[in-house]
Amino acid sequence: MAERNRTALRISLVAVMTAVVAVFTLIIRIPSPIGGYISLCDAAVTFVSYAFGPLTGLIAGGLGSAFADLIGGFPQWALVSFIVHGAEALLVGIIAGKDISSVLRRVVGAVIAVLIVSGGYLLLTTLFGLTVFSEALLEVPGNIAQSAVGSVVGLLLYSAVRKAYRGLDAIRW
Fold it and tell me: Where does 3-171 sit in CATH, by number?
């Protein structure tokens, strides 16, 4: 494939996956105790990272979740979501590597996702003054549940898409 076509494919893929993350984030939102919400964001973020690699995951996961916060009426969370879900996607994609069939890599990726999401929101919401530490602690169980369920759903979605579309690994970068 010519480099120009590959670049166009990557840009298009990142744009579409950013929209997918935003839609997954907005489609179901359960209010949380301190004014945020629990969503399916992590399912889309982990799917994108497994399917298309850490760079696509970083951009789509970070931008998609931030756009969802901006569009969905939670602009104060957009920067935190960008950092947390971008980092989650990057690390899950790196850990998964090209050998996504490895059970150990999948388990480690899921654990990392849980740690990044729950720890990232706890740390950054306090650091950025969005809430006090004691209130941010109330979010931890919901964030753990969201990222754990999201990791499993994202992996199941990836497995189904990979089975249906054998050429998926060729566009991972």
Answer: 1.10.1760.20
Mean pLDDT of 61-67: 98
Residue 135: pLDDT over 90: no
Query: pLDDT by residue (tens digit) across 67-76?
Result: 999 999 989 9
Query: CA dist 161 to 47, 121, 133, 138, Å?
Result: 10, 30, 40, 35
Start-end of H helices in 28-132: 41-52, 54-71, 78-96, 103-127
Domain ranges in the chain are: 3-171
- Token couple for 122: 């706890």
Looking at residues 149-158, what average pLDDT do you find? 92
**How much is the CA Rg of the chain, to the nearest whole Å?**
16
Is pTM beyond 0.85? Reply is yes
Residue 33 DSSP code:
T
Distance from C-alpha of 103 to C-alpha of 23, rounded to nearest angstrom: 28
Do 46 and 109 meet the contact criterion of CB atoms below 8 Å apart? Answer: yes
Please give the Cα distance from 100 to 47 (Å, whole number).
11
